[in-house]
Amino acid sequence: MTHTHTRSEILRGAKDALPIMFAVAPYAMVLGAQASQVGLSLVEVGVMTGLNFAGGSEFAAIKLWAAVPPMLTIVLITLLINSRHIVMGAALAPYLQHLPKRKVIPALFFMADEGWAISYADTARRSLAQQQPAFSWPYYWGVCLPFYPVWVGFALVGAAIGPALGNIEAYGFAMAFPAVFIVLLRSMWKGPQLACSWLVSLLVAILVYLTVPGAWFVFAGVIAGMLFTYLRAVAQ
Question: What family does the database annotate (predicted)?
């Protein structure tokens, strides 16, 4: 792969990620503002977002925060919510087998939901078009890496200005979170038949959310979707 091709793939990935980054920034600010309002300092917000880099579990941790944080509960909830990354990594695994582990493992640290969805959709398109390799390594970096400074940076901005703004959710920034995932789902749409797994996952997650305390709905939705997909494949 030439340097010119590598550079063009990185730029193509960054270009595809750019619209989503405009939506990620506002809810990173919401997270930072909420974190500052429960007593976290700028340094603590930076460490949390920089080391965890997974928005859903960070929002959950902030909601559980107290004068004496229930650390074990926070750790378990974080692991539970981030368990979706196991499925995300498994979906990319067939395309990464030719790469050495010393490259793959650090790269997976930057695999947030948005970057994974964009990269996976591109991989699926390239595979359908029989382009080789289907997985573009520089494209993945171009997509995923920019989300890191955007997430950490805007979370710090939110933490800095949050106390002055008060309830930052009143400005409507939180709407960016569901909007991003609707757009990502649209990019992965392959017809109503294949979307049945999404529907099963959604319904189970809603049911568990309404009946079971905590973040078990995330795990239940993931497992239900996977099990339904497996059983349908076996039946066919």
Answer: Belongs to the AzlC family.
Q: What is the pLDDT of residues 164-182, one digit of tens each?
A: 776 666 666 666 666 666 7
Instruction: List Cβ neighbours of 220 (8 Å cut-off, separation of 6 or more).
Output: 204, 205, 207, 208, 212
This prediction has a pTM of 0.77
Domain that holds residue 98: 3-72+81-189
- How does DSSP classify residue 214? S
Give the C-alpha separation, 177 to 136, whole Å: 27
- How far CA 43 is from CA of 156, 159, 164, 232, in Å, comes to 9, 10, 18, 48
Domain identity same for 101 and 170: yes
Contact 200, 225 (CB under 8 A): yes
Q: Determine the Cα–Cα distance for residues 185 and 192; give it in Å rounded to an integer.
A: 12
Contact 95, 135 (CB under 8 A): yes
Cis before residue 192, ω within 30 degrees of 0? no
Alpha carbon distance, N-terminus to C-terminus of the chain:
40
Q: For 182-229, what is each residue's pLDDT tens digit? A: 766 666 666 676 678 778 888 998 998 899 886 677 778 878 887 887
| 219 close to 85: Cβ distance less than 8 angstroms | no
* Structural domains of the chain, count: 2
Are 22 and 128 spatial neighbours (Cβ–Cβ below 8 Å)? no
Cα dihedral 22, 137, 113, 124 sign: positive
